[in-house]
Amino acid sequence: MTKAMNSDALKFCSGFGQFHTNKPSPNQQAYTGISLQEIEAMVLDPQSVPKPEARWAIPSTEKTRNYAAQQENGQFGFVWADLDYVQCNIECVAKTLREILPPGTKFFVYTSRSATPENQRCRVIVEYANLLAWQDHESAAQILNDRLEKAGIKPDHKSELSGQLCYLPNRGEFYDYHIEHGETLDPIRAFGDEFTAKRTLRIEEEQSRRRQREEARRKAEERRASGFESPIQAYNMANPLEDVLELYGYQKVRGRYLSPNSGSGSPGVSIKEDGRWVSSHESDAATVGKFGDTFDLFCYYEHHGNRDAALKAAREKYCQPGSSSSSAGVEFGPDFFENSGQATVATVASVAVAKWPEPISLVVNQRPDPYPLEALPGVIGEAVKEVVGFVQCPVALAACSALSAVSTVVQGLADIRRSERLEGPTSLYCLAIADSGERKSTVDDFFSRPIRDWETQKADEMKVDLKRFAAENQTWEARKAGILTAIKDTAKNGKDTETLETNLTDLEANQPEGPTIPRVLFGDATPEALAFRLAHGWPVGGVLSSEAGIVFGGHAMGKDSAMRNMALLNSLWGAERVTIDRKTGPSFVIQGARLTMGLAVQSETVRAFLDSSKGLARGIGWLARFLIAWPESTQGTRLFRDPPHHWPHLEKFHRRLGSLLDSPLSFDEFGNLSPDMLELSPEAKAAWVAFHDEVEAELRPGRDMAETRDVASKAADNAARLAGLFHVFENGPAGHVGIDHMEAAASVITWHLYEARRFLGEIALPVAMTNALKLDEWILRYCRENGVSRISTRNIQQWGPGCTRDRKALQSALEELVDAARVRVVKDGRRILVEVNPALLEK
User: Fold this and answer.
1) How far, in whole angstroms, is CA 600 from its chain's centroid?
2) Which residue has the higher pLDDT, 547 or 197?
3) Which of 609, 729, 801, 818 could make an SS bond with 774 (beta carbons 3.0 to 4.6 A apart)?
4) Looking at the predicted structure, is the pLDDT value of residue 444 above 60?
5) Is 585 helix (H, G, I), strand (E, B) or coil?
6) 443 and 761 in contact (C-beta within 8 Å)?
7) How many CB atoms lie within 10 A of CB 702?
8) Closest CA to 161 of 30, 227, 26, 65
């Protein structure tokens, strides 16, 4: 829908600073209006004020910042784009706009206040020929951003939101602009097929949702007729989640939703396959919650979080009265836990049987994104493909093994300088969360074989040196014993021993030193044992373990030693000087050592470890140093394959590692390892800075990394390390790291960032949900082992998980299971029984 406009007369919603609002508050102030003619004048003569005071505009004549109100009533007069990372200058951006817009289109481009000559961040404004309704404006904004991205300029897609603030020209230390004179834009005509496709997709989505609503209503009627009385399930069945999200002001943006509680403007709510929603908005965590179902939204927005009131309202509207089944949220009476007895199907024949809904997972399992295999350069990527093709393991598992092997070899040859006084090793810590049987040991063997072969070769070459040392040391020991005996006899006879003591001192100073046999790979040594070997043996090491006992198990990470050993591993990650004080032996110092870790561990083990460490593992930044991968299992799909006759890419990988292993290490005058220092090329440095800033922006409340700030804070460091590894593997430990390797590294690290967010978000569950998971697992196992489908609450308290022995804890856990349609609580006389959804027992 379009409406002719007079751009000189039209005023678009405007204000000053992000806190400007017309709602009752200390900052309440009416919004102003601004015309495109006035905006053009600002491009020529910009304001120069701090951003909290800077003027902004919303491209709508509706004077409100409310997203829903703009979608309902807004008339939009221009489209804009926000370009946070620009590798060229303003004229380059203008040239790109001329290429992606119709010839002769009018537009403005101006740099933002934080722009620099190296990164000319800017905004683009393109005037419409006619006012557009919200849906057509959204399509135009999406198409403009898509075209910019396709042309190699990455936009911030938040400009597609209906109430997003477009900050107007504001001069900082650097300012530049471009005004292209010409005709206004008619996006419906200019974007042609793309615009039509957007409209068609919107219509199809609405039709699909209409069908979903009709199906939901039909199922709700069937459920009411069946006598099923779970008000939560009934409400969820009758109200499609997308409708309820939009009802409460959530705005859909490219498949995700922007929460009305969010101040960031970044859409952080998504709908998962099991029908639940999950939010990364920090503002949601403090209000409606981090995840839930349709009923949770109803409970918060309609009943201010009063669950009892929400249950009552849902029961009255959606449930048939008089059913004998207990419903979710029921307050169990004093006799709830006082009745005993185990029930089978026959013993509860008097209990009304209702139709079961499909059970849903207790945890919102987010599917991992595909591993960015194309980012692994050359031989590394091809070798990973080759190994995965035969082993049929998860791609991420093989990639972590390959990178761990490369890191183990390269870390002793080169460090990386990110900026002045920002330099460090190229070592990586990798952690793959994988089930037993995922073939981590097999994959490690494929990629680390040249390291093991090199260790064996060096040990063989040094056998003669070892024999010579043994002989020299025996001679030395004999001479020492002789001098000590002489000193003892001389002193006994009352004679002077000064000459003998001098001889002993000289002898001690000339004790033969044994040859250092390179031992690079370690298994499950304790952190202290590992530190001793790095200090007294070869100064480069790699822990490649499919069991990860060095980190997550045994005495090494017990209550008394966990903090000490995690701090030690933190220091080794940074190649720091560490002093080890020991009660049972001499103290020693580690200086210049380099350590890589490539570990695999089961998720349950990590969960138990994090629980037992009581937040310490994340609190001191230990877990943040790891590149975490949590790939989906391939077990059950790995049909037999004969190994290939030739491994051309893996053989190249092996030869390259062997060549690097033969490169001599550099040591300083004190005998400490001193690798060469790699520098970033100017282009690579700009790319690294852009990646650093992009990740930093995501740490803000409500953004993607708000709850994994510890991990994200190490991302830029890890990206530089990985870029250095790529460079040395392909070019050797000299020269400058190029932009291709930096961008590839940033792509891989970004994937690991979101994997860490996904994994840590799903294990950091509320206590009630954790208890529900344990209870769910125990009930299912008990019923399957005993061939029953029901169990009394008293038996659960007697034999079930320790966390549900407490009455209130059991009640909370059962409510979670009932909400997820995994069990239902029924009464049989005075007995309270927990009945399991048959669909779960069939699995």
Assistant:
1) 17
2) 197
3) 801
4) yes
5) coil
6) no
7) 23
8) 65
